[in-house]
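Bug #77: duplicate submission created two jobs. Keeping one. Sequence:
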Amino acid sequence: MADTETRCWLISGRVQGVFFRESTRREAEPRGIVGHAVNLPDGRVEVLGRGRADALDELERWLHEGPPMAKVDEVQTASVDQQEIESGRFRTG
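Kept job's structure:
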């Protein structure tokens, strides 16, 4: 992808077991964002995305709210390991 950025967010609160990962995928894919949303052992969700800056900004705004059953307490920016991203898809795990 030309003119793309990679960003990583760590979301804490009630974000596991409330369809956060799948909802994130549904928000990311139409914006052309590839990456992943995965549960972490400490109860947070990690979202890694690569796409246009404006699309990533939109996703970040959505991450502060999440799906209806979620309660987001904090969204932190984390360091990025770009080699983790599989080109062309957004996965959950």
